[in-house]
Amino acid sequence: MFNEPFKLNLPDSDILYVQKFFSEEESLNLFKMLFEEIEWQQDEIKLFGKTHLQPRLTSLMADNDKPYSYSNITMTPKPFPDVVKHIKSKVEAFTKTKFTTCLANLYRNGKDSNGWHSDNEKELGVNPVIASVSFGASRFFHLKHKTNKLHKYKIELTSGSLLLMKGETQHHYLHQIAKTKKEVGSRINLTFRIIN
């Protein structure tokens, strides 16, 4: 049951969720390897004229040299480590999509977050396909429609899960990982995308 793809019932979207895309044991091993093998960095962001450290660690990896820009940050990719290649090949087989790039996020605790945004940067094309894989602690993923406040959704992204967003989803929805006061462990999220 948990391996069955579940389509989110949200208008103007095409979002699929697979809770146990990776087994519990494999997810635990992959988390440890990703934590150790990815070159994490913490960039500065500007909010309302003030400079802050981004509330999470990130890394951009790709099989090309195409940079990725968001929130006035431009990241230059590093080569894929073997562990990310392994995850990428499984994601590509399931989604029937060839991804070039992966933006990785490390949420160290409940204070780390990612504010409301859409993955709609011009580098990603018109209707981007975003495959998001999570390892480690579970965190809630919030979605809300840009114009219709009635259309909103909250889903818990568990370790080993896959969330696939495609079609016009990024045109119509914002998403976030909110801060939480609950005691939560570290979470690693890999978001595979296409930048040509």
From TrEMBL:
This is Alpha-ketoglutarate-dependent dioxygenase AlkB. GO terms for biological process: DNA alkylation repair. One of its GO terms (molecular function) is dioxygenase activity. PANTHER family: ALPHA-KETOGLUTARATE-DEPENDENT DIOXYGENASE ALKB HOMOLOG 3. Its cofactor is Fe(2+). Keywords: Dioxygenase, DNA damage, DNA repair, Iron, Magnesium, Metal-binding, Oxidoreductase. The keyword Repeat does not apply. It comes from Aurantibacter aestuarii. Residues 98-196 form the Fe2OG dioxygenase domain. The keyword Cell wall biogenesis/degradation does not apply.
